[in-house]
Every structure is written in structure tokens, then in C-alpha cells.
């Protein structure tokens, strides 16, 4: 009887082990879009921890299409004016690879300080499509003008901030959804903002106390939500071309 060479036995054994490992690690072999959906369901800290699972997972979290930074990210140890965590967010964005579709920042302390300006500037370079900034009730901040460099925005949600549009801004040409909650914005500024967002389909306004007589000219508007104490009664609101 002829005995096969040992090298062949080792070769077959290694192939069998690799096949077994491949079959047992089904999650790693899932399509990239499914893996992205799984990782985006995790808090950003837990998604980053997957880098220790294996070489295959080492950089997967850096390709997340959505990044959510809230109190679960920074913990409860931050204080107003503390820029440590906002600096870390900036560093994460520097490391991030691939397209970034959605960005959420809901920790009030992370909205303070110079790093937020650079964070939004990086988002504009990544052609961000959805942005949501929502601090705790009662905490107001001045929103940086770098937001208006995010020209690929399709969804924008802002809460409790001083919203000032630069004179040279020509509009968000792709914006289809806007949510404003307790925004410090004049009636004239609001009208001008809407007039240069021609694709707007969804508009939600909550407690915009400085807004008076609304004249909403939005040809593609499909959803309108108004809530709160306005300067004028809701009956005086004029919504033109609403479908």
C-alpha cells in the first residue's frame, strides 16, 4: 500500500481547517452592507471594540455609514466647555474610511468649543447626507457656519441653537427634510432659507417663538408639522403649492 507524502497530508489538513474556519465564521463572510447594518445598531464604542475579534474585523468599524455620538459615547463625566470628547470625535472622523451617510450628535457638551467647527467641516468633505444635532432641553448653542459647506445634505435636524445663514449661501440643493426645534431664527431668515431649498418635501417646526407670519413656498412639500406658540395664529400661515 502506498502512503501519501506527509507534506500532502499537511496540505490537505490545512485546507480542511481553513474550510472549517470559513464555515464557522459565517458573520464575517456576510455582505458588507449587512455587516454595516449590524454595526450601526451598536453604540459607537461597541462597534469600535469589534476590531479585536480578528484581522478581518480590525477596520470594519471605520467603514460605518452612520455615526451616532450621544451620552452613551462620552459617559456622564463631561462638563460644559470640555473639548476632550469632541476632539475624539474629530479624530474618529479623520480615521473614518468610505462614504458617511448619517451623523448624529446629541450630547450637549460635545456641541461646545472649536472642535465642532472642524467636525462639521470634515462632514462636508465626506459629502454627508443626514445630520442631526440635538442637545438636552434648555441648553442652547451657536451653530457654526461650516454647516453651510455641507452641500450634499438631504436631511437636517437642529434643536436649540442660534441659526444664522451666511449672505453668500445659495441653498441646499438636495435638501428634502428639515426639522427645527426651538431655533433662534427670524421670520425673514426662515423664509429666505426655505426659498433656496426647492426640493423640500418634509418640514417640521416645533416651538419657533420668533417666527411670525409664515409664507411657505415649497412646491414639493408633502408633510408639514407645526407645534408651539407662534407670534401669529396658525390660521395666518400661508402654505403655497402644498401637495
- CATH fold category name of the largest domain: Leucine-rich repeat, LRR (right-handed beta-alpha superhelix)
**Most strands sheet:** 7 strands, parallel
Assigned CATH architecture of the largest domain: Alpha-Beta Horseshoe
Radius of gyration based on Cα positions: 24 Å
Ranges with pLDDT <50 over ≥5 residues? 1-9, 233-238
Structural class: alpha/beta
Q: Mean pLDDT, nearest integer?
A: 76
Percent range of helical residues: 25-40%
> What is the element string, with H for helices and E for strands?
HHHEHHEHEEEEEHEEEE
Report the strand count. Answer: 11
With helices defined by DSSP (H or I, 4 residues minimum), what is the helix count? 7
Number of domains: 2
Question: What percent strand?
Answer: 15-25%
Q: What CATH first level of the largest domain would be assigned?
A: Alpha Beta
Shape: elongated
Q: How far is the first residue's CA from the last residue's CA?
A: 85 Å
Strands of the widest sheet, in order across it, are: 1-2-3-5-7-8-10
* Assigned CATH superfamily of the largest domain: Ribonuclease Inhibitor
Protein name: F-box/FBD/LRR-repeat protein
Pfam family, one: F-box
Domain F-box: 24-76
Give the key terms.
29% helix, 243 residues, Leucine-rich repeat, LRR (right-handed beta-alpha superhelix), 2 domains, 7-stranded parallel β-sheet, disordered N terminus, 17% strand, 7 helices, two-stranded parallel ribbon, alpha/beta
